[in-house]
């Protein structure tokens, strides 16, 4: 029996421009930086510090996330490309000054083609450490003390809320969540800020999270919020399945990717899905399944672009009011995508891809003009 030919490593890269494997044995650094596209500008994307099961899982994640950043930046109207980095390890155990500085040295070798920021497992103080080994403009999401934007989850949540308002207008004819029951799965960095905004708007909020600490923070700030799951809950630590199957108007996945799979769509009772998680669709067919199920899906990389807008603003000298005004545009962008989806007869996820791809193609053509 013949052995099948091995898949080419380039076939796995999904049109990525560059993938860099970074290893520093003394600090334990094992990282992958993926640059998907620099057609619109330098590839900006956060650094995720996560205990992946294996290196292949880390590679698959960074490739998918960096591609999503290309589309996110394009749809948001930014002159940036898409990139992402992952550091393999448990941030609670493996993160150190030396490791972060070693990582910063690798980022610097890319000469500005990749610009990094915070992500899962990394925070603004970590970016200050990384930046000590990098030139100006290569590290964003820094602390306010160092001229940065601070916590980018603030405008990420704000942008998701704007997208949710657009979905509410499309679904119920009114751009408010007042009186609507919204389920938020994941109340960490972004989810807890989203809960604040929803309650201010008059929504009825129910939350779940695998972290009892995250749930405790929400409980302390908002005793009126319903909680599903937790260590003492009847549904076990992760109450996501129970939340999805409950009587919701809006479901907001705000944890890790792949939240919308076939089983979730079958169980889902909400009419709108709009959340902060990246890469929510478990496979491309989910977009059509949601539409057939009568669910309006606000494409993840469109509505969660507020954080990218926030850290990108640092490159001009950060102004929170200016960044917030730009993030407010997510409302109009989301509405435009819903309208395009209806006119083209495609799911919103497909319409969003078309908007992003059109802008990349148009600007790329202009940039063929040689300048001195």
UniProtKB/TrEMBL annotation:
<dbReference type="InterPro" id="IPR006097">
    <property type="entry name" value="Glu/Leu/Phe/Val/Trp_DH_dimer"/>
</dbReference>
<dbReference type="InterPro" id="IPR006095">
    <property type="entry name" value="Glu/Leu/Phe/Val/Trp_DH"/>
</dbReference>
<dbReference type="InterPro" id="IPR016211">
    <property type="entry name" value="Glu/Phe/Leu/Val/Trp_DH_bac/arc"/>
</dbReference>
<keyword id="KW-0560">Oxidoreductase</keyword>
<dbReference type="InterPro" id="IPR046346">
    <property type="entry name" value="Aminoacid_DH-like_N_sf"/>
</dbReference>
<comment type="similarity">
    <text>Belongs to the Glu/Leu/Phe/Val dehydrogenases family.</text>
</comment>
<dbReference type="InterPro" id="IPR006096">
    <property type="entry name" value="Glu/Leu/Phe/Val/Trp_DH_C"/>
</dbReference>
<dbReference type="GO" id="GO:0043837">
    <property type="term" value="F:valine dehydrogenase (NAD+) activity"/>
</dbReference>
<dbReference type="InterPro" id="IPR036291">
    <property type="entry name" value="NAD(P)-bd_dom_sf"/>
</dbReference>
<keyword id="KW-0520">NAD</keyword>
<dbReference type="InterPro" id="IPR033524">
    <property type="entry name" value="Glu/Leu/Phe/Val_DH_AS"/>
</dbReference>
<dbReference type="Pfam" id="PF02812">
    <property type="entry name" value="ELFV_dehydrog_N"/>
</dbReference>
<dbReference type="Pfam" id="PF00208">
    <property type="entry name" value="ELFV_dehydrog"/>
</dbReference>
<feature type="domain" description="Glutamate/phenylalanine/leucine/valine/L-tryptophan dehydrogenase C-terminal">
    <location>
        <begin position="150"/>
        <end position="368"/>
    </location>
</feature>
<protein>
    <submittedName>
        <fullName>Valine dehydrogenase (NAD+)</fullName>
        <ecNumber>1.4.1.23</ecNumber>
    </submittedName>
</protein>
């Amino acid at each position: 029996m013949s052995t099948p030919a091995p898949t080419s490593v380039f076939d796995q890269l999904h049109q990525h421009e560059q993938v860099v494997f970074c290893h520093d044995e003394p600090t334990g650094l094992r990282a992958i930086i993926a640059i998907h596209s620099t057609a619109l500008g330098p590839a900006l994307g956060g650094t995720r510090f996560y205990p992946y099961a294996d290196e292949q899982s880390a590679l698959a994640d960074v490739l998918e996330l960096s591609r999503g950043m290309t589309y996110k930046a394009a749809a948001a109207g930014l002159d940036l490309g898409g990139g992402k980095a992952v550091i393999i390890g448990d941030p609670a155990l493996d993160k150190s000054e030396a490791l972060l500085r070693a990582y910063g040295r690798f980022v610097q070798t890319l000469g500005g083609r990749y610009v990094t920021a915070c992500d899962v497992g990394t925070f603004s103080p970590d970016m200050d450490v990384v930046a000590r080994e990098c030139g100006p403009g290569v590290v964003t999401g820094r602390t306010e003390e160092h001229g940065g934007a601070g916590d980018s989850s603030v405008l990420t949540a704000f942008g998701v809320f704007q997208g949710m308002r657009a979905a509410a207008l499309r679904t119920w004819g009114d751009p408010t969540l007042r009186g609507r029951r919204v389920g938020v799965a994941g109340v960490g960095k972004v989810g807890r800020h989203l809960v604040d905004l929803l309650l201010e708007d008059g929504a009825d909020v129910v939350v779940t999270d695998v972290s009892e600490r995250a749930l405790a923070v929400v409980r302390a700030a908002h005793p009126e919020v319903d909680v599903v799951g937790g260590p003492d809950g009847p549904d076990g630590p992760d109450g996501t399945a129970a939340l999805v199957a409950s009587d919701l108007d809006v479901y907001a996945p705000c944890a890790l990717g792949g939240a919308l799979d076939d089983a979730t769509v079958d169980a889902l009772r909400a009419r709108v899905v709009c959340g902060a998680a990246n890469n929510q669709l478990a496979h491309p067919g989910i977009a059509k399944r949601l539409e057939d199920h009568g669910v309006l899906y606000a494409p993840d990389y469109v509505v969660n672009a507020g954080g990218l807008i926030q850290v990108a603003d640092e490159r001009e000298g950060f102004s929170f009011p200016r960044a917030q005004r730009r993030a407010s545009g997510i409302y109009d962008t989301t509405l435009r995508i819903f309208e395009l989806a209806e006119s083209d007869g495609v799911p919103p996820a497909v319409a969003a891809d078309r908007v992003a791809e059109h802008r990349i193609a148009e600007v790329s053509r202009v940039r063929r003009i040689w300048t001195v």
